[in-house]
From TrEMBL:
Name of the protein this chain belongs to: DNA repair protein RadA
Domain notes: The middle region has homology to RecA with ATPase motifs including the RadA KNRFG motif, while the C-terminus is homologous to Lon protease.
GO molecular function, one term: zinc ion binding
Role played: Plays a role in repairing double-strand DNA breaks, probably involving stabilizing or processing branched DNA or blocked replication forks. DNA-dependent ATPase involved in processing of recombination intermediates, plays a role in repairing DNA breaks. Stimulates the branch migration of RecA-mediated strand transfer reactions, allowing the 3' invading strand to extend heteroduplex DNA faster. Binds ssDNA in the presence of ADP but not other nucleotides, has ATPase activity that is stimulated by ssDNA and various branched DNA structures, but inhibited by SSB. Does not have RecA's homology-searching function.
Keywords from the named record: ATP-binding, DNA damage, DNA repair, DNA-binding, Hydrolase, Metal-binding, Nucleotide-binding, Stress response, Zinc, Zinc-finger
GO biological process, one term: recombinational repair
Pfam families in UniProt: AAA_25, Zn_ribbon_LapB
Annotated NCBIfam families: sms
Amino acid sequence: MAKATQTFRCAECGWTTSKWVGRCGECQAWGTVDEAAAPRAGATQAGPVSRVAQPIGAVGLEVARTRPTGVEEFDRALGGGLVQGAVILLAGEPGVGKSTLLLDVTAKWAKDAGRTLYVTGEESTAQVRLRAERTGALADDLFLTAETDLSAVLTHIDEVKPSLVVLDSVQTVSSPSLESPVGGVNQVREVASSLIRVAKERGIATVLVGHVTKDGSIAGPRVLEHLVDVVLQFEGDRNSRLRTVRTVKNRYGPADEVGCFDLTDAGITSLPDPTGLFLSRHAAPVPGTCITVTVEGRRPLLGEVQALVAPSALNTPRRANSGLDSARVAMVLAVLERRGRVQLSTRDVYTSTVGGARLSEPATDLAVLISVASAAAQEPTPMGMIALGEVGLAGEIRGVTGLQRRLAEAERMGFTTALVPPDPGPVPPGIRVVEVDHVGSALAIVADPASAFPLT
């Protein structure tokens, strides 16, 4: 008889091999290769079904209705609020404010919607209580426990009978039925699968906090992101108060929303209009500054680009930037020097954003170009002007997506003029646009603003 062969499969990518290895040969992940279950002989037989199939028009929608949590920006990222039985994965770097945000969410949910269970596996209950007192996140129906055993967590769910469960974090909880270490691939998959099954059976909204790796990706098996209904990325710079919750995946709403928060010693608050954090106030026009409008998810946000050009004492002039894409800045500087005839090869160029904003989309190219040209010529840009456009290698100014939405936001914030690519389409009332099709046209406006924006 033929000898039965064993098959080993990677839990991350599905790669298979005939013998066990410590590292996957496809995705190079360590400790993810386990023995795959042998296929059962014979054809699969028909079995009982959990529920009868019905016409799609007869399917009820109540179980998919969103319910607000009371935290506006968190609801915005979720697409309106939490859904009964939905499982959310919230990932972010250590110390960014995940626990503070979720403590605020659970406290408001407990006050308005019912019992809430907060399970912490990284801190003691006393530590969480101190933070709750400091941030004003105390509620009678908010139950708190510190557990790292999966069976104990499930027991707490049976006893409390909550409508919302928060597990902080999924990498700290383990199942006693598995011998793999805490935080390992198998443990994370087992813990997540068990909680997802309970959430779906009982209609409990569940939030799982996840760790991230050094490169910013979610730690654990990739299948974890496929199992949950919503994946949120919590981002923020330690040197800035601004925090953002970015939707990566959402089965109940748009997957491109962004919620903004202000993190202080007193807690975390929603920022419905965070534009003020990204702009500086100048009493008079200043050389080397230009305002642009970026789109985060579906939300247009104003951002300020600042530039400083100074003579260099080095053989290779320095290029430094903060908050901008280094590759795009280098490209814009090359186009500015080659197509715009602005001498930069013997000067240091420093570029930055205001308030810790990240401007990486091509629509901000024109603002970077104008700010650098303004700093090099020591000519201030006109007050109340914004710049929108992608800069091409030939020096052309290309169109950007969502131009009308960006112009409407600029007009709402009090800006009156805008440099835009050709054929902008319908323009919101209250703002005047000047079309620029080449780098030379933009530089001419920087050199002589009165020619483009005559006094009326």
